[in-house]
Write a structure and sequence with these properties.
The protein has two domains: 158 residues, no CATH class; 59 residues, no CATH class. Helix content is 73%, strand content 2%. The protein contains eight helices and two strands; from the N terminus they run ααααααββαα. The chain has a two-stranded antiparallel ribbon. Strand 1 and strand 2 form a beta hairpin.
Length: 223
């Protein structure tokens, strides 16, 4: 299978391509947004391996989620409870521990490597979650949609690369398929419950982001 460095390198190429298109189309004008698009594709390129318990993707994603959760916890306490420094630090530590270690442990327990996260529908779930988050923070629709696409394209690049490495021996021995072939570019996993939950989440995300998706359809329809 392709390693973390290979996936992120390909993700960087995907990000560069999306960045080039954004520059040529002049859809985005903020330099910070350009950098964000580039890194969104890179994050998407290693996101499927979040179910690898000991891998860097798991450490990075849950570490970032822990810090984000801690920041939100501090903001909530500061606004609604008090400004005591000790209380703020305690809330940050508690939230970080819950997200990074408790939620991380539960995720490890109920996820399986190359399971549902290595599937095409999950790529769209990841992208739509980004779109939903951007909607929540009132990000411009054009920018939010491009970020969504960047994550999806990075995610799909990971799946394609896994299939290539599963079917082609890079040591010069030609086509030598192994048991991992076909386990990345799939529409469901071997667990019916995980598949049903994923599709339920996908349908829900399609519903709550329907206005943004209709906007995309209208733009291309008019074009």
């Amino acid at each position: 299978m392709a390693g973390f460095r290979t996936h992120t390198t390909v993700g960087a190429f995907v990000g560069a391509a999306i960045l080039t298109i954004a520059l040529l189309s002049a859809v985005v004008s903020d330099p910070v947004a350009y950098a964000g698009l580039f890194f969104a594709a890179i994050v998407g390129s290693f996101l499927p391996d979040i179910d690898s318990d000991s891998g860097l993707p798991f450490q990075i994603i849950f570490g970032v989620l822990g810090f984000v959760g801690a920041s939100l916890g501090v903001a909530y306490v500061y606004k609604n409870i008090g400004t005591d420094f000790g209380l703020l630090m305690l809330s940050a530590g508690v939230v970080f521990f819950l997200v990074r270690f408790v939620c991380g442990a539960l995720f490890k327990k109920f996820s399986r490597h190359r399971g549902i996260f290595h599937s095409l529908p999950m790529a769209f779930v990841a992208g739509l979650l980004v779109l939903l988050g951007a909607k929540f923070y009132c990000v411009d629709s054009d920018l939010a949609i491009i970020f969504c696409v960047a994550v999806i394209m990075g995610y799909v690049s990971h799946l394609i690369l896994d299939e290539i490495y599963a079917g082609i021996n890079v040591n010069g021995k030609g086509f030598l398929p192994n048991k991992a072939l076909g386990s990345a570019l799939k529409l469901w996993s071997g667990h019916a419950r995980a598949t049903l939950i994923m599709y339920f989440i996908l349908v829900f995300l399609l519903f709550v982001t329907r206005e943004e998706l209709y906007y995309v359809w209208r733009v291309f329809h008019v074009s």
